[in-house]
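Researcher: Please predict.
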Amino acid sequence: MKAFSTESTLLIVGMVVAYILFTTWLTWRLRSKSSGDFMEGSRAMPAFIVGVMLMSEYIGAKSTIGTAQAAFEDGFAASWSVIGAAIGFPLFGLILVKRIYNTGKITISGAIAEKYGTSTKNIISLIMIYALLLVNVGNYISGAAAISTVLKIDLTQAAFITAVVSTFYFAFGGMKGVAWVTLLHSALKYAGILIILFVALKMTGGVAPMIEKMPAFYWTWDGHVGASTIVAWLIGTVGSIFCTQFVIQAISSTKDVKSAKRATWVAFFFCLPIGLAMALIGVAAKFAHPDIKSCMRCRCFCRICHRGWRALSPPRW
């Protein structure tokens, strides 16, 4: 597969740099001006914005590209990895939101200290620091993988760039600034996924040819993923929603309990289609290019840009 030309690379780099500069300016413009803004958006964030923030946790590089890869290899059942989030947010709203919100706390450890004391809070805080460190490493690496490919730089350098930019967003923007910039990030990622889905279905001629010609397991509820893995995904994803600091802090930034609960339903309605879309993209990539490796699945649709959006003829299985 051909690499980016010099002109294409310069264009992409220019767009990335322009976007980073614009969002940096936006973060500074919308930055938190008080501790209340920084930590909890002064408890005045609209439910829709908070719902998008919650959803954004599950449409990053790991969940989107990872879901597509799993679908490429194991079938449409890979969508369960994101559907778990769609299931988890309403459950979180029904079971825990009111209790957490009414404590007046914006951290998990703070809420736990209310009931179990300082010693338990300190233990939980140490566990959360370790867990969030692992999450951040994963986010930095997944973001760096894309940046290193586009900018043609070392993965370590790309990870450093990712860390610096994200740290700026959070350190200066706080909850208020991050919320509005996340809305922009999420809108662009969501639009990008829908465009890729459109291109993928154009290349394959729709869903019907895939169902007709591909092995049956690609369209079963468990595929080659397996029921045990799906159950593990659901438990892990739903569990993470109930104990992730960002989720707790986000719902605490709404104006009241009703708004917090509405935010979880907003996250549900955004998460569900994105999980289905990413799985369908992965299956379509397998249908259109059955001989490529799954690690190249994110590039298989790039060819259409050089062919005037003409669909490639899919193979017969």
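Model: Confidence is low (pLDDT under 50) at residues 296-317.
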